[in-house]
Amino acid sequence: MATLSLFTPSFPPLTAMKPHAIAAPTHLASDEHRWLAVLRRSDTAARPDGSGDRFFYGVTTTGIVCRPSCPSRRPRRENTLFFDSVHQAEAAGFRTCQRCRPAGPPPEQEAAARVDRVRRYLEQHAEEGAVTLAVLATIAELSPFHLQRVFRAAMGVSPAEYARRLRAERFAEALQAGSVTEAVYAAGFQSPSQVYAKRAATGMTPGARKRLGEHQHIRYSIVDSPLDRMLVAATDLGVCLIAFDTSDDVLREELHSRFAAAELEEDNGRLADHAKTVLQHLSESPTAKRLPLHVRATAFQQRVWKALEAIPHGETRTYAQLAAEIGAPKAVRAVGSACGANPVAPVVPCHRVVGSNGSLTGYRWGKERKAKLLEMERAGKDA
Fold first, then answer.
1. Which of 60, 66, 86, 369 is most buried per CB count within 10 Å?
2. Do 54 and 84 contact (CB within 8 A), yes or no?
3. What is the pLDDT of residue 124?
4. Architecture (CATH level 2) of domain 31-96
């Protein structure tokens, strides 16, 4: 009977490559700082003057040059050489990594360019209706999962949420120029039922939105604040809007879009006390909580906003924690929508709600202002 013999193939042992002569860095960070950057997967190392030094590293056992942020397994220190540029590494006999592509633009720059490409596409095609994530992924040349992740990291919302906000803005603009039906299709909705379905989230029908502020006299004032220019608007019953931007014209447009049918009057004198109280609220003034408010809200939004006001100064909650606190643990997304609909931030402190991992998620007035608000509150708490 024939027998099967097993054998182990023999390969020549791997030997470390010997690169050509390499010019040692002179005015840049030390090799020790560069190695620490590789361990942290940071693309820059600290120079002696405190600035950042962008560099690359080559692995002598593989002959590959990578960015320090490359997701591949870290090499052993004795097998690592550092280079000022990819060209220098290639001249020394190394080839570029196919994962981190060190010869291309920095990853954060490339990701920003891809996100911007998708953002511009959504803005240019907002009236055409919903766009699938697969189509957007093709435009960005990324997988749908990766696009979702980098877009949310850059914009604070998913591509779908961004598109919905664009359609809502286009709808509000078109509503002032024509009928509800005309505005529905001009904004890219498939049918009026899609807009009316959002009534539960907004608390009003499209017709009511067009009449928003009807028979009301709203005074407003625009002042300087730690968060750029600030608009405070109020009816005779209380403050109805607090907004931030670098441009007074943009703030006036924001006010008009929310209260298109109202009589608007700029009145710095009569609103001086309200504006002063809001400014004091940024530093947790005791009088800020007595600021009268006049805002439209659904019953659910009122529950969320009341829970927001209960978050202690200088502390944060996740959306899931806030949903649990109001007795609706499965309504995490609805809680996020209620926070986004808050027209009187930071008096109703929706900036104190963060992502499940503690990251700063979307904020109506920008993540930079959200970060500054939290920083100011923590500084005041530690003082």
1. 66
2. no
3. 78
4. 3-Layer(aba) Sandwich (3.40)
Question: HSE on the CB side for 236, CA within 13 Å?
Answer: 5
Mapped to the 3 state alphabet, what secondary structure does 13-81 carry? CCCCCCCCCCCCCCCCCCHHHHHHHHHHCCCEEECCCCCEEECEEEECCCCEEECCCCCCCCCCHHHEE
Domain boundaries, the chain: 31-96, 105-210, 217-290, 299-382
Spatial distance between the Cα atoms of 373 and 225, rounded to a whole number of angstroms: 12
Q: What's the angle, vertex CA 178, arms to CA 175 and CA 180, rounded to 5?
A: 55
Q: Any idea which residue has 């600021």 for tokens? A: 291
Looking at residue 70, its amino acid is C
The candidate with the shortest Cα–Cα distance to 86, out of 99, 67, 71, is: 67
Which residues are designated catalytic?
Answer: 66, 350
Q: Of 313, 303, 323, 325, give the one whose Cα is nearest residue 352.
A: 313
Distances (CA, A) of 167 to 115, 129, 253, 257, 370: 19, 8, 17, 14, 25
Instruction: Quote the CA–CA distance of 333 and 340 in Å, as a whole number.
Output: 11
CATH number, domain 105-210, options 3.30.413.10, 2.60.300.12, 3.40.190.290, 1.10.10.60: 1.10.10.60
pLDDT of residue 47: 55
List of the chain residues with pLDDT < 70: 1-29, 44-53, 107-108, 126-130, 155-156, 168-214, 283-290, 380-383
From the list 130, 320, 301, the residue with the least C-alpha distance to 200 is 301
- The model carries a pTM of 0.49
